[in-house]
Amino acid sequence: MISRRKFIAAGTSGLLVAGCDRLDRSETFRGILRSSEGLTMKAQRLITSRDALAPEYRAADMSPIFRSNGTRLPNTNEYARHLNENFANWRINVDGLVARPLSIPIQKLRSLPHRTQITRHDCVEGWSAIGKWHGVPLATILGAAELSTRAKYIVFHCADRFGDRQYYESIDLIDAFHPQTILAWAMNDRLLPVPNGAPLRLRVERQLGYKQAKYIQRIEAVESLAGVYGGRGGYWEDTNDYEWYAGI
Ligand SMILES: Nc1nc2c(c(=O)[nH]1)N[C@H]1C(S)=C(S)[C@@H](COP(=O)(O)O)O[C@H]1N2
Ligand SMILES: [Mo]
Fold it and tell me: pLDDT tier at 20 (50, 70, 90 boundaries)?
């Protein structure tokens, strides 16, 4: 498992280096490097790459099939009821370190200004797929909720469970406010299918598949991950030692 993840990382690091080489030719970038004495080149690249956009693709590049992984259908009575109601009563609660806690009906969320992006999903299990996502920037929601200056992480609480544990994930504020970080409610021009996280899932395009939380019910802003479930920031992080930051 770990070696596959390293393999994926090695496969994409070439692209990042190529991007840096291109930037290196511009005067601005040299200026930035000169002004950052004390920072190693590696750290500089790291900072640059955290803000950079993930590659976006053309419609012609989309995978004919976007498979599902992990939970395909949350097995709770509550989810079955929502599915039966076509998610008409699904709400996304936004709470924790915010000045204005929100409870947003899914229909309301679908009416907000959205972003569309065609990106590649990479799962540590060794498969990738290019899909089209449509959703609200997470930044819009965090802005509406008036995120506290104490908040450092955003936690996504999901509707599905593995055994006795709830699936959850978390990201830091760099990723939370990244322009490609969206709460997606449609995929490949259709409302999100159940196997892919209906009615709402996260797309955090600079990270691996397991960070892309499906079946989102609650978004919580916290100062520390220590008190959240197993304390390591995600289901796989808690149970299988996966890295919390799964950058690609
Ligand atoms: N709630 C929830 N989110 C989840 C999972 C899951 O089992 N439950 N699996 C993760 C993994 S490992 C991957 S690769 C992707 C799969 O997304 P997909 O089913 O749309 O392909 O969702 C991620 N998010
Ligand atoms: Mo995955």
Answer: very low
- Ligand 1 atom nearest residue 131's Cα: 20
Q: How far is the CA of 101 from the centre of ligand 1 (A)?
A: 27
Q: Per residue in 152-190, pLDDT tens? A: 999 999 999 988 899 999 999 999 999 999 999 999 999
φ and ψ at residue 227, rounded to 5 degrees = -90, 5
Q: Is 69 in the pocket of ligand 1 (CB under 6 A)?
A: yes
Least confident residue range of 5-19, 97-111, 186-200, 215-229: 5-19
Rounded to 5°, angle at Cα 61 from 57 and 66: 100
Which domains are seen in the chain, by residue range?
A: 54-240 (3.90.420.10)
Q: What pTM value is reported for the model?
A: 0.84
E strands, the chain, in order: 91-96, 102-105, 115-123, 127-137, 153-162, 165-172, 182-187, 190-191, 201-203, 216-222
Strands 165-172 and 182-187: unpaired
The preferred substitution site among 214, 236, 237 for testing ligand 1, maximizing ligand atoms within 8 Å of CB, is 214
Taking the centre of ligand 2 as the mean of its atom positions, its distance from the CA of residue 24, in whole angstroms, is: 34
Supply the residue whose CA is at minimum distance from atom 10 of ligand 1: 210
